[in-house]
Amino acid sequence: MISRLTAGFSSRLPASLSFALFSTTASSSNPSAAQLHRMSVKQFVEDSISNNKVTIFSKSYCPYCRKVKTLFSTNFPDEKPTVIELDERDDGSDIQEYLYQKTGQRTVPNVFVKQQHIGGNDDTTAFHQAGKLAPLIKE
Ligand SMILES: N[C@@H](CCC(=O)N[C@@H](CS)C(=O)NCC(=O)O)C(=O)O
Q1: From the CB of 122, is ligand 1 less than 6 Å away?
Q2: How many whole angstroms from 119 Cα to the centroid of ligand 1?
Q3: What average pLDDT is seen over the chain?
Q4: What is the pLDDT of residue 28?
Q5: What predicted TM-score, i.e. pTM, was given to this entire model?
Q6: Could you tell me which PANTHER family the record lists for this protein (predicted)?
């Protein structure tokens, strides 16, 4: 019932707010295990983005992820991006779902620099080639 009520309402909310709402609607004083899990996924992602200059949500076998890691290691060897390999975590698909709600991007890599969402490998490469990545990293 609650989920039916919130489904229509939350579809008109920004994605991040909608996720937060789903995390807390049933009973904020007694959240379910699933809600607690979603809250911890959200917290993990937000902490990762906040606490690191460069965060790459990745999959270890993904060629685009490899390319974007190489972009950073080649051009910014002093930066050590925080790489979160979603395929190596039990909560990887939940993190990917939260990232989709937050950024509208389903794929990996999903790159953040200085709390700013840059995008995938193509986006990050274009951002770098436009001369925008170095100043953002160095600022
Ligand atoms: N154009 C994208 C392509 C990214 C892409 O296709 N990544 C694949 C993995 S190699 C993906 O995320 N597939 C869906 C999934 O793994 O859930 C980019 O440059 O980042």
Answers
A1: yes
A2: 11
A3: 87
A4: 62
A5: 0.83
A6: GLUTAREDOXIN 2, GLUTAREDOXIN-1-RELATED
